[in-house]
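Internal tracking record. Fields below are filled automatically when a chain is submitted to the structure queue. Please do not edit lines marked as system-generated. If the sequence contains nonstandard residues, flag them in the REMARKS field before resubmitting.
Queue: standard
Priority: normal
Entity type: single polypeptide chain
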Amino acid sequence: MQRTVAYFFSIPRKSIPFAFASMAIDRLRTRLFTGISFSKLLGTGTGKTFTPSDADLTRWGMVVVVDENQIAAFDQSPIVKNWRKRSTSEFCAVLAPLSSHGLWAKKNPFDFTSPLSHPDAQIAAITRARIKWNKNFTFWGAVPPVVTDLHNSPGLIAAIGIGEAPIGLQGTFSLWQSASALRDFAYKGKAHQVAIAQTESIGWYSEELFARFEVLELRGQITATAGK
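SYSTEM-GENERATED OUTPUT FOLLOWS
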């Protein structure tokens, strides 16, 4: 059985060069690791505007889809250990996809969905989009109201911006107390509903994905801004 594992590491500023180097080196190393079918190395940010000014160079992450039997091996691999020994804090979530719509790098990596096994389980959500270059400024102008709604939503534990590049490849990772809390934000939040309508009428994205996950295991805490 496959699982999705998300890591986020906060690092001191002196380790920023290591982070940039690892973004390049670990991209190939994770793809070659036994049992991994999908991996992405990620920068993070506040997610308030999805512009380069959001970037937080002291927190970095990765999302991998891995065979359940290989999770422990990957967690103790040199890839993870190199980040761990330089980090000031670590967050790790083992996740089971509940639903996944759209594409990430021309595939849906979370298409092995299953029903919610525990009604009171915490929920994680990953959104990811490839923004059309000629739509960036329009997109940035529409984001702040949605972010305000998100961070004011009852049941939200934490939400951060994630991205494969400073511009154009943007998303969010959020953690929720329950499935109902996430549904209320997605379907009742006024700003979010406006953004959904604009997505259809303006056509911001050349590729997009939205996935919900049941949280199976958590280690550490994730906050809106990384520790400095």
